[in-house]
Amino acid sequence: MSGIESRYVSLYSICRELFEEQGKASKGIRFENYYNEQVERFKEILQSLGVNPNSIRSQKDKAFQIPEGKKEYVKGLLREYTSSTMKKVRKKQLPQMPFEEMKPIIEDIEDFVKDRLDGKQQTKELTKVYVKSRYVVKEAIEQARSNVIDKILSDIDGFLPLFIEQTLNDVDKSVLLKYYIELLNDASEKWKKVINIASEMREEEIFEQSKKELKNGNINLNVDISDMDALNLKDSNKILRESIEVYEEQEREKIIRKYKQPSKQEMNNVKELLEELRGKEIK
Questions:
Q1: What is the C-alpha separation between 117 and 126, in angstroms, rounded?
Q2: Gap between the Cα atoms of 176 and 77, Å rounded
Q3: Distance CA 12, CA 90 (A)
Q4: pTM, full prediction
Q5: What is the pLDDT at residue 219?
Q6: Domains of the chain: which residue ranges?
Q7: pLDDT tens, 197-248?
Q8: Residue 8, CB half-sphere, CA atoms under 13 Å: how many?
Q9: Does the keyword section mention Coiled coil (predicted)?
Q10: Sign of the dihedral through C-alpha 177, 183, 189, 192
Q11: Residues 128 and 47 sit within 8 Å (Cβ to Cβ)
Q12: CA-CA distance, 275 to 283, in Å (whole number)?
């Protein structure tokens, strides 16, 4: 949905509907007690997901403003408060959830935030949702797992026709498959090294930024390292590019060092020459 929902309903009216739908009055429950409990539950769920409850309050009377189109969503959150999934959310176990279980929860809260907020406030609240759940990295892992496995299977399937080719014998085919595995291993090793370099670069960057903040008398112990705007950190893609450049430079230096070292034969030739010269000096 583009833009913010222009019509709102109050959390109070939503709770009134739930109260009647659940027949709470017939059980001797007072609405005010029920409402106060639902408000606390609603705030707890939002905070567990990473959203500041105050961000969806009216600036005028501080009442919760729910986009009209999200009324059923809020009802669902309150109904599911004691469900096993919502218990995981409330116990801050989102990062440990399987991705497929987490995905609809994050997508729903994304839609809710986008309908209620815009601009910097929307970005701020969504960033906290992603940090709290580690959703972005879990999504990337799932995509990588799917894409890489599909690619490998596709490559191997594409190799199958070679098994009926007469120009390649069984040893040829075995060697080629082993070479493919070596390439995968090489790519994995490169990736790990780039990760280590990127981690070191981020650590150094955060350390330098922290020193500046302390020097300027600014101390904020509540800033999350994932909040790149708050820490004035480099863009992630720039960190990746710089890490790859460092890795490639390190590899070039290894090759240079390797070929600068004299071979055993060269060392023997030098040794023989020195012995020859020494013999001539003695004479």
A1: 10
A2: 55
A3: 22
A4: 0.65
A5: 54
A6: 8-133, 168-218, 232-282
A7: 999 998 888 888 777 777 776 655 455 555 555 567 788 899 999 999 999 9
A8: 15
A9: yes
A10: negative
A11: no
A12: 13
Nearest to 38 by CA among 54, 60, 14, 57: 14
- Note the pLDDT of residue 165: 63
Structure tokens that stand for 61 in this block: 């009377």
Asked if residue 53 lies in contact with residue 77, where contact means CB atoms within 8 angstroms, the answer is no
Residues whose CB falls within 8 Å of the CB of residue 111, separated by 6 or more in sequence, listed in order: 1, 70, 73
Contact 18, 28 (CB under 8 A): no
pLDDT at 245: 94
Place of tokens 């594409």: 158
SS3 76: helix
Q: Is 157 exposed, middle or buried (0-12, 13-18, 19+ CB in 10 A)?
A: exposed
Instruction: Count CB-CB contacts under 10 A for residue 126.
Output: 19
Chain position carrying tokens 């409330």 = 90
Q: How far is CA 245 from CA 198, 223, 237, 239, in A?
A: 11, 30, 12, 10
**Distance from chain centroid for Cα 114:** 20
Q: What is the pLDDT of residue 83?
A: 94
Instruction: Let me know if 8 is exposed, middle or buried by CB neighbors in 10 A (0-12, 13-18, 19+).
Output: buried
Q: Which two tokens stand for residue 25?
A: 């009055």
Which tokens in the block code for residue 60? 């005028």
Distance CA 110, CA 113 (A): 5
- What the block records as the tokens of 233 is 């950190």
d(CA 2, CA 265): 73
Longest CA–CA span in the chain (Å) reads: 121
Please, are residues 105 and 89 in contact by the beta-carbon 8 Å criterion? yes
